[in-house]
Amino acid sequence: MTHMHITTWVIALILVIVSYGLYSAGNRKGAKIAHMILRLFYILIILTGAELLFRFTVWNGEYIAKAVLGLVTVGLMEMLLIRRKKEKSITGIWVGFIVVLLLTIALGLRLPLGFKVF
Ligand code: HEM
């Protein structure tokens, strides 16, 4: 399931870039399709993350933080695309997204399941 979790968010990242590029290129129809598929992946990320979370009967602060950061990352992916679509200012969201994404990945790798890096 850890591999499923990683696969879902890697595909989601690719879809964010594809949808963002299509919105920027003015291809609204293509962007809409990529964005819809991405929304399906949000659900898969959350389901696979929740499955990992519910394997533990006692959660420590790091698990709660991982889940909250994961949800914030997904929220920022959606905000990025909505703001791009509406052509609103986006620099702050990009910075926030990258910071939160890196923190989520670092904390995910620090926690005990799956690959051990940190
Ligand atoms: C885009 C969002 C997310 C990213 C980039 C992300 C990233 C990661 C990474 C890199 C790992 C480590 C995998 C490994 O060690 O092999 C992980 C594990 C985990 N994730 Fe996520 N995640 C995201 C969303 C979520 C969400 C929404 C939840 C909770 C609902 C969640 C809960 C977990 C849990 C419980 C683990 C297991 C930690 C452990 O190793 O013990 N993640 N995630």
Automatic annotation (TrEMBL):
It is found in: Cell membrane. It comes from the Bacteria. GO terms for cellular component: plasma membrane. Keywords: Cell membrane, Membrane, Transmembrane, Transmembrane helix. The keyword Oxidoreductase does not apply. The chain crosses the membrane at residues 6-25, 37-57, 63-81, 93-113. Pfam families: DUF1516. It is a multi-pass membrane protein. Belongs to the UPF0344 family. NCBIfam families: PRK13673.1-5 (NF010198). This is UPF0344 protein BW143_17435. It comes from Bacillus swezeyi.
